[in-house]
Amino acid sequence: GQNIDQPTEMTATEGAIVQINCTYQTSGFNGLFWYQQHAGEAPTFLSYNVLDGLEEKGRFSSFLSRSKGYSYLLLKELQMKDSASYLCAVRDRSGGSYIPTFGRGTSLIVHP
Amino acid sequence: NAGVTQTPKFQVLKTGQSMTLQCAQDMNHEYMSWYRQDPGMGLRLIHYSVGAGITDQGEVPNGYNVSRSTTEDFPLRLLSAAPSQTSVYFCASQLAGGGETQYFGPGTRLLVL
């Protein structure tokens, strides 16, 4: 199985940049996802990394280092609406399915 | 497309009662999954299916049954509800294959008294 670790809570200021880290241990890494979840809502897809490097999508970027078992989600020009939980999920092919395992999530609070 | 739908949105049960949480998707996705989400615990996989007629257990399957008779539907059955099953339940679906993301339903909030 996987062991996925991310900080429980982070705070940041509107307009700033924040980096949310995720570390994982897995025997058959097959991709890492980031999801955003607002309170009372379902998770929604943000990014997917399977190769090392940085993937950029507008204000959001995600980085992966497979050798270090490490990823981060970078949020730029923070807005109040970015206050949400951010979930890191890792897929492991050794289980025989493509269903990812989720970390406990990082609650991001953006204040004015 | 409606995407992934779940019913009911909210349910209160008494200990020992049984019920079925419904999940349906209209995207012709092969894979479907059920998760529960508790405060501080993230999303934990209960059961999943990689196609009609095929189901398997996830991390926390005890107390739950599933079946997948069609591609579209994946109901989750609570056989005898317990207070420990109070949670928010999410159903998700995805296409088969390595790079495919999951699409989540809106969730069912279950309270077991």
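qc> The radius of gyration of chain A is 14 Å.
qc> done
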